[in-house]
TrEMBL record:
Residue ranges crossing the lipid bilayer per the database entry: none
MobA-like NTP transferase domain residues: 14-159
A single BP term in Gene Ontology: Mo-molybdopterin cofactor biosynthetic process
Enzyme's top EC category: transferase
EC number: 2.7.7.77
Keywords for this protein: Cytoplasm, GTP-binding, Magnesium, Metal-binding, Molybdenum cofactor biosynthesis, Nucleotide-binding, Nucleotidyltransferase, Transferase
Protein name as annotated: Putative molybdenum cofactor guanylyltransferase
Pfam families assigned: NTP_transf_3
Entry GO MF terms: GTP binding; metal ion binding; molybdenum cofactor guanylyltransferase activity
Organism whose genome encodes this protein: groundwater metagenome
Matching InterPro entries: MobA-like_NTP_Trfase, Molybde_CF_guanTrfase, Nucleotide-diphossugar_trans
């Protein structure tokens, strides 16, 4: 059993077919990926798995020398990013979050980390289906399972959970402890299309305006 597991966070930075340069569109007056990245960095050492075509721009934005960037040499999506992170990072567990999730919640993330126990394969949330893009994965477990999947041309990250459900701590999305931090489960909202981007921007602007109107300065 790992008494004090080390946890690093990763965020895949790939190309999007539906939104051009998705990580770099503006949301909340910053690049979309920065909304989640800044939250993760407050909690964990955080690494970006970057597609070659976005890596240069990421370095420019973060003014980084590359120490927290892992080149995406596989370019097969989230499963490949997770596998490369497991190969390159020296941690017990990896918190995985998509670059298009601007409402990550610190309380939710810490709650999930608190569920790690007894060398499990990971911690995952479940609505109708599992939520593999906001989950915790054991590094050793990923190395043991993901490589075989990739060799067999099985490239859906959800497969690593669906094939090994007994290895995961599964948290129902309606868990009362979880909802204390985010009753509307906004933290799972991702932006996958231009229409979703416009709608989310509009809703966020309305929320901020309403919030400020109720503050007595």
């Amino acid at each position: 059993m790992i008494s004090n597991p080390t946890i690093f966070a990763i965020m895949p930075m790939g190309k999007s077919k539906r939104i051009e340069n998705k990580p770099f569109v503006k949301f909340n007056d910053k690049f979309l990926f920065m909304n989640g990245y800044e939250i993760l960095k407050e909690i964990f050492p955080t690494f970006l798995v970057c597609h070659p075509e976005v890596e240069i721009k990421v370095r420019e934005i973060l003014n980084e020398n590359g120490s927290n960037i892992i080149p995406d040499t596989l370019n097969i999506g989230p499963l490949g990013a997770l596998y490369l992170a497991a190969k390159n990072l020296t941690c017990d567990y990896i918190f995985f979050a998509g670059c298009d999730m601007p409402f990550l919640n610190t309380g939710v993330i810490k709650f999930m980390c608190g569920q790690i126990d007894n060398n499990i394969g990971g911690v995952v949330l479940k609505r109708e289906k599992f939520e593999p893009l906001h989950a915790i994965y054991g590094t050793k477990f990923v190395l043991e399972t993901a490589e075989k999947m990739i060799k067999n041309n099985e490239r859906k990250i959800s497969g690593i959970i669906e094939k090994n459900t007994d290895k995961f701590k599964v948290i129902d999305i309606n868990n009362s402890e979880l909802k204390k931090f985010d009753p509307e489960i906004k933290f799972l909202n991702d932006i996958d299309t231009v229409d979703e981007l416009k709608k989310t921007r509009k809703n966020f602007k309305f929320f901020i305006t309403n919030f400020l109107s109720n503050i007595n300065f």
